[in-house]
Amino acid sequence: MTTEFLNGVEAALASVTDAARAPAMRAYMRGQFDFLGVGTPQRRAAAKPQIRALKGADADQLLAHARALWRLPQREYHYVALDLLALHWKELAVSDIPALLELVQDKSWWDSVDALAGIIGDVLRGQHDYMDAALQDKNIWVRRIALLHQLGWRDKTDVQRLFSYSLALAHEKEFFIQKAIGWALRDYARHAPDAVRSFTHKEKERLAPLSFREANKHIGVSADIRTRAQP
Which CDD domains does the record match to this protein (predicted)? Predict the structure, then answer.
């Protein structure tokens, strides 16, 4: 069945490939991946029938299809795998998180990792299994997943975990970690701006400037903080 699915996806993408676009797409990803030359809208429309046809497939089947796509060299196939998992995430269980983390560590870059962060967050649905260990993983992309897994959770966010994770990795110089800390805090600030403002100003000396700026990008400074800052 996996071979049939792959053949269907390959044929679908071949029908919308524009090879002239591939060099620019490769350059945008700093030359790390080959591309067919298929834009996002065209890819999603072309692969939609194959992905929807998997309705009723179990987690093992879905992950097998995703892994098969991941083994192909062109980046568009990895995106189809992500679209597949994003559409059928309800078929996945918390016990499938290790399999998703394996994908995180293969052909890693911000585009695939951030998409997987959203899928993992959906699967966890208010739980945090594997995330404490992920925070301490030697792979920076796995650590980024730990920081981002609560994106969009709003009032379901474990605030203590969000803040403690941010401080645990605040010392890192890696851009993608500093950026993720700021992104995670900024996302929660949409729900609780005062909490994020208070935390980031209290811990400003520990947070990287990039993390601090990103966290506070849309919330400004409270009147209380302005008053305390006056001589």
Answer: AlkD_like_1
- How far, in Å, CA of 11 to CA of 22, rounded? 17
- On whether the pTM is more than 0.85, the answer is yes
What CA–CA distance (Å, rounded) separates 130 from 145? 10
Average pLDDT score over the chain: 94
User: Could you tell me which CATH number the domain at 109-231 has?
Assistant: 1.25.10.90
Using pLDDT thresholds of 50, 70 and 90, give the confidence band for residue 221.
low
- Asked if 62 contacts 84 with a C-beta cutoff of 8 angstroms, the reply is yes
Q: What is the mean pLDDT of residues 146-156?
A: 97
Mean pLDDT in residue range 90-114: 98
CA 190 from chain centre, in angstroms, equals: 18
**What fold does the segment set 1-92 form as a domain?**
Leucine-rich Repeat Variant (1.25.10)
Burial class (CB in 10 A: 0-12, 13-18, 19+), 230: exposed
Could you give the 3-state DSSP secondary structure of residue 74? strand
The Cα–Cα gap between 217 and 211 comes to 10
- Interatomic CA distance for residues 186 and 193, integer angstroms: 8
Cα dihedral sign, 184-186-190-194:
positive
Task: List, for residues 187-215, the tens digit of each pLDDT value.
Answer: 999 999 999 999 999 999 999 999 999 99
Residue 224 has pLDDT above 50, yes or no: no
Residue type, 147: L
Of 128, 138, 139, 49, the closest CA to residue 148 belongs to: 128
Nearest alpha carbon to residue 14 among 49, 51, 42, 53: 42
